[in-house]
User: Fold these one by one.
Assistant:
Number 1:
Amino acid sequence: MMIIKTIIIEDEVNARKALENMLSFYCPEVEIAGHSASVKEGIALIEKTSPDLLLLDVHLPDGTGFDLVKKIKKKDFKIVFVTAYDQYALKAIKLSALDYLLKPVKPDELRLAISKVQQVLENEEQINLQIETCIDNLNNVSQDKKIILNTNENVFVVEIKKLIHCEASENYTNIFIEGKNKIMISKTLKEFEEMLSVYGFFRVHQSHLINLQYVDSYEKKGSGSVRLKSGKSIPVSIRKKESFLNALKSIS
């Protein structure tokens, strides 16, 4: 069994103790190497213990978890953010392909997060890209956000406004991007729908999520179909037709 040396950076004592208890009971592969309650203490602890994993609170007394990671020069660890519900921070974390747990943390979700830590290979360059993208998205008040797309070979940072269309392929999703070849990502279309719907994307069909800004025309025959500016024709399901047409009106 691979041992995961872990530190918890959390300023709420009860939340930290709850995490420690759950890790001890549900995650025997985790070795807790220490804990801290601030950015300053966390940096010192990371340098002292060289952990494999940070369970990192987003909001700390002297800054944020993002501030902490940004200040660490050598990022040879994995990160799972732990946060109370914060819509703005969660959007940035999701778009950056970083993992997170919502407070109060549930045992099954913690177990899943630790399991993913064991399976997912990340390197320092990837972590830097993810954190930088997350911070950029947090600091960018406009809709011009970026998304991290991970494949087995590459990490892509893409402007959301350049995503044309997402197409389901079982538990994978094909992403079509302006000026680029399609990218296959091992996430479901539902996951992309949850991330992108607030940025002008609409799921017109069980297998298709489209960027409304790329709609060229709509053909009314039958349940209808959409022609995108890329030239691709996408079917519209009968149950989505009315809400899709209303969505089109809202951007016209």
Number 2:
Amino acid sequence: MTDRDHDAFRAEVRTWMQEHLRGEFAPLAGCGGLGDSRYDPKLAKRWEQELARGGWVGVGWPKEHGGRALPLSQQVVFHEEYVRAGGPGRLGHIGETLLAPTLMAFGTPPQQQRFLPGILAGTEYWAQGYSEPNAGSDLANVQTRARLEGDSWVIDGQKTWTSWAHESDWIFVVARCEAGSQRHRGLVMLLVPLRQPGVTIRPIRQITGDSEFNEVFFAGARTEASLHLGAPGEGWKVAMALLGFERGVSTLGQQAGFEREMECLVEVARRNGAARDPLMRQRIAHAAVALDALRCNALRVLAQGDEAEGAPVTREAYIAKYVWSNWRRDFGRLAADVLGAAATLPDDDPLAQKLRQVWLFSRSDTIYAGTNEIQLNLIAERALGMPR
């Protein structure tokens, strides 16, 4: 596609956002997601349906599954312009960008026909049931059990740090289905309805004061015998393929969000005088340059192929989470230093509120989705080929 085509598409996205992210949806503008105290999940679900009507859900999905099959370059444009226009955090993210591609790769035609339309329309929402109290970074240690009983799987166990479970309809669950199995063997990936007896969801209160994570308890919860992705016993393969989609094009939207936070920090630094400090200016400049480097690495990963289609995970992909999470942890510290005393003194200034939230939430960035220690192990063993 030509530069003119990309410019026209960028203008199309920007215009649509300006015309639709107003009126009823104006309160969502600039909201980060369920961890943002201003975020209204009921309104966010109506926003997902508004996006769906506009054709902005599943923009990269194949047309046979209802998507627009946009080229990668235009998908990048959409995710970046969505965030730059103030688009709120997406409640449909887990279903659209994680489960849907996994369904397309491993699901049966009836499973695809049953679940993809609800994701595409913004009417069904999904949570991810991976981590457990003793199986966070060490995911292969999962102890949640699933057994076939008649025409159903019966599930017992616990999942934790489950994003958005309290606002979701379904959850995909990694569970142990073979008695006596250990580690990566004997697992199954199940699609489980959350609104049923036998499922208890308890929100986890975060340091920010909000709750976007949950504990989910299964006590005899059930799902249909046919609702497993891949063969029972091969759940690890499916689970790892799903995690591969986290390195997809939506990461550019995440980094566009970081750009917005950077703009907020610069504005506060100019306003409160922190920008007049030479050392503070130097730290801000270093953060800005490093953010540009993150974007370049993300684009390089995307340009090197689609690992879901069998291509190996590149070294650049292996370093991505480690690099961005450390950048944002350090950026959180910088935000607190720019705020100075205001970092611990709540007020009505929306920019200061945003930076305080970044400071608090960024403490978790190097822990969730694989701790720094686990990321370094992956880089050493898989990217560099070093011995265990």
Number 3:
Amino acid sequence: MKTLPEIFDVFILGAGPAGLCAAIRLLDMGYSVGMLEQEQFPRSQIGESLSPGIYNIFEYLNAGHLLEDSMYLKNISARVIWEDAAYIYDRQGQDKGGIIVDRSKLDQELLKFTVSKGLYLIQPGKLKHSVSSENGWVLDIINETFEIKIKSKIVLDARGRKGTLLKERVPIAPSAIAVWTHIESNSVFNEAFIEAVNDGWLWGSPVSGNRYRIMAFTDTISLKKNSESHLLDLVNKTKLFFPLVEKIKSGLVETCSVTSFVNQTPWNNQFIKIGEAAFTLDPLSSTGVEKAMRFSLQVVIAINTYLKDQDSQYPKDFYEEKLIESVVNHADWTADYYRNAWAYCEKKEFWMKRASFQFDISKNKTDFTLRLEKEFNKEKSKFENKQTEPIYVDFILHKLWNEEMIMSPNVAFKATYAINNDLIELKQALIHPNLERPLVYLDQVELFPFFKNMNGKAVSDALEHLSKFMTIEKSKKILAFLLSNQVFIVDKKHVKV
């Protein structure tokens, strides 16, 4: 092992996708980064079904080649029973859709790639003790037969569920457990199955190693002592999985908790939880790895800002704001998805609990959870006129060419965090009922500085003004967007666009 620096900029616990994603970006920024991984690689890991957005992340990290393995499964079609118990919906596989990987192989190759970029790796090793110091953190690590003392300005905890104590977890959904087994795969099992039943739902898919995984998600309190019989009971209630009952009987049945939760103090004195140590998704979503890596990229921005200015409050506030946004959006999405199931319409307990979960922080009150509770219980905004149709730029501008533009009375601005050159800054964001979220930038152009110069101008004059700062095509797109969403309205005539 190469000589360790006297103090790391960032030290990461855990070599899963979240930790490795953060490490790659930090190394690219020129920071010294160390990592501790408890297990030897390759190691078995579930969570092989990756969502389409994973491609963009790997390409951004210059690691896209790691997904181009001939053994990985792509374009998997699916048969689904969800909204109607009597109807089977066929969902076709798509190019650049989801991908089934071998996580033991992918994680190992991603780790090797990160080490090649300059990562200091301790593997295997175990964190014995950590203590906050004036300059960051001191970590006592046991590596085989000797101990190592590590100093780091920041620690990222990417140890997954292992990185969060039970008392630190705040549930954002009812408790849930996964029960699964494998059967031998062949050409008959080349598609995925998804099916809702009274007491949960099941997912089946081909995975690496010529295996087909059958996994059931159910309530922990309904799980019988014998997990094998419980899995068979659920399968017996299905249409899609029922023909596989005899094959399932000979398989090894495993279980694990899949309860969705958030950590009560995810950023504690520069000891920062990321990935599943910070927030676990409901198993309905296949975006767990993608979300963890994408959030790691945001955490890196916060870290970069902190290391540039350790007195700034922006990094912690930005990180917690983004985490709260992710938690609330995911909770809303999953509740809606559970409501769409036929079993919810029949008021089955498993589904009713998940569609109407009540967030409770009575045992976990922290500054972070109080902010989360406020957002969790906030009434959701309803957009007056969300833009769904394509914007015909030239047609709109030609029709309104000589009309005077006036800022809508519904326009407001508020200070919000934004990213500029990998740093967090406070910017003015545009708010309007027709916009899904506050906008600081539109097509990489900051909006606020232009507004007072466009208000009261004819459309043609506004276009001429914008074209001094950007291309004519970009100017047209921005104006057409603002007009079509009625952020700017035309004087008196109110020509409908």
